[in-house]
Amino acid sequence: MILKRNILIVGGTGFIGYHLAKASLKKRWGVTSISSKRPKKIRYISKVKYLICDITKFNQLKNKIKRKFDYVVNLGGYVDHSNKNLTYKSHYIGCKNLTKLFSKNKPLAFIQMGSSVEYGHSKSPQTETLNCKTKIIKSIYGKAKLLSSLHLIDIYKKENFPSIILRLYLAYGPKQDLNRFLPITINGCLKNNKFPCSEGTQSRDFVHVFDVVNAIFKSLKSKKAKGQIINIGSGKPQKIKRIILNIKKISKGGQPQFGKIKLRKDEILKIYPSINKAKKIINWEPKISFNKGLKSTIKYYYEQRK
Q1: CB-side exposure of 271: number of CA atoms within 13 Å?
Q2: pLDDT tens digits in sequence order for the chain, 306 residues long
Q3: What is the pTM of this model?
Q4: CB burial of residue 273 (10 Å; 0-12, 13-18, 19+)
Q5: Would 165 be classed as within a structural domain?
Q6: Domain presence at residue 45
Q7: Alpha-carbon torsion, ordered 58, 61, 66, 71, to 10 deg
Q8: Residue 160 class from Cβ within 10 Å (0-12 exposed, 13-18 middle, 19+ buried)?
């Protein structure tokens, strides 16, 4: 008899959280989500237990979570990074509160969703062996993410806490909010709008949300992943201008105004990871090509407009 697993998804109402919850239910797992708000209608799942809580407040968190979970995946954190205080607290203090809560009743695995921003201005392909330091990272979000990673590695070494950090690049796919590069561009092209963009000389790494969910599952089951930082991306950077023109072509519309948005002086032109460690440690690499994933994502947003 296979025991039913229980997973707690912090940020289960978000883009990745929704897809992880849906895939976990297919495995017949019990799924609990914890977030600061109720899910949007398009990301509501009836079989998920939704808890509303501010993870930056430990006592509130302690009162909400009364049981042990087999797996905990932390996708939580304030999305609007313009509020520096909330960004810092939700991404770093929230992570510390979660590990404190589960320090006695440890899950089998605790996944922290990290970010490529933790590498700062390190040259690509970025590898997990790079010595990241908070003082060279300018954004509060990047500092909070790196502090969380350092905390999790520390408690893994000191307390054998089952920490796993997945350092994510740019996730995309259906049901992503319209405040990210791909949905903004797709929406603009589908509406045949004029929209400002940069010259598009940058190259960025994109990974489909289905591949991200697969990486999470493989990490949860892997003994080798404990105490590790693992890059999750495609390893194949895509030029922004080429993406915009491709979306325009597939959508048969859109009037991108290249050069209207100026690049930051310190903007890194090429960002992408080495994913050799993911291949070796968790036997993972993305299965969905960017071209295929982009077409299916455009199709989703097109159908939403009907």
Answers
A1: 22
A2: 457 899 999 999 999 999 999 999 999 999 999 999 999 999 999 999 999 999 999 999 999 998 999 999 999 998 888 899 999 999 999 999 999 999 999 999 999 999 999 999 999 999 999 999 999 898 999 999 999 999 999 999 999 999 999 999 999 999 999 999 999 999 999 999 999 999 999 999 999 999 999 999 999 999 999 999 999 999 999 999 999 999 999 999 999 999 999 998 888 999 999 999 999 999 999 999 999 999 999 999 999 986
A3: 0.97
A4: buried
A5: yes
A6: yes
A7: -100
A8: exposed
Residue 24 CA to residue 30 CA, distance in Å, equals 8
Burial annotation 94-130 (CB, 10 A radius, 16+ → b, else e): bbbbbbebbeeebbebbbbbbbbbbbbebebbbbbee
Cα–Cα dist 218/176, whole Å: 23
d(CA 166, CA 188): 31
Identify whether residues 134 and 183 lie together within a single domain. no
Domain of residue 194 covers 173-205+236-272+288-304
User: Is 127 contained in some domain?
Assistant: yes
Count up the domains in the chain and report the number: 2
Please give the structure tokens belonging to residue 64.
């909400």
